[in-house]
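Look at one such:
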Amino acid sequence: MNAEAFVKDFNAITAPTIHLRINSPGGDVFDARAIATAIGQHPSNVVAHVDGLAASAASYIAIAADEVEMAPGSFLMIHKAWTFAYGNSEDLLSTAALLEKIDGYLAADYAKKTGKSSAQIDEWMSAETWFTAEEAVAEGFAGKISEEDPEGVDNAWDLSVFAHAPKQKAAPGPGLRHLAEVAKKIADDEAAATEQANMENAERLRRFQLDFA
């Protein structure tokens, strides 16, 4: 489900309280921004339940809720935005400037939620910090720890893309394995497209050099 579909369905809910259950390693930061805006503007009381994992963009969605509850054994992770880029120096500098802007608004909202200083938030984001349920509550990202473990939650995400992810003991379930395979295919396709573009750019440069040799 993308942000457009989520926001449409979410805004149609008229219940006085909405329980938003989160178990996600993250995703697109702009989708997360749109979802967080919808959560923040909704007239209902929104309670985010981190059932297993709220990492990266998913942590940003969680803190947009009016209340945040961490399940026992769950994690919340924040880090600086990252992406793939190629091109000349101006292209790369432009991408870096965009990432800095994204980090700025993420950090501002994390600071507002937790009451922590911008310097502390920046330190946590730079280090890719993983908070246990207890730490998330202690540092202000969540309000409390749920009394019971949620049933049927599989935490075995493929977190190899992250540098400091906690070690996992369980193997992914069938559904999560499928999601991991889809994510890997998307990453492989993006890498192949980038490699092809780099080859084409190199060939153009070679022809240009030959023309002016």
Notes: DSSP finds seven helices and six strands in the chain. The longest strand covers residues 45-55.
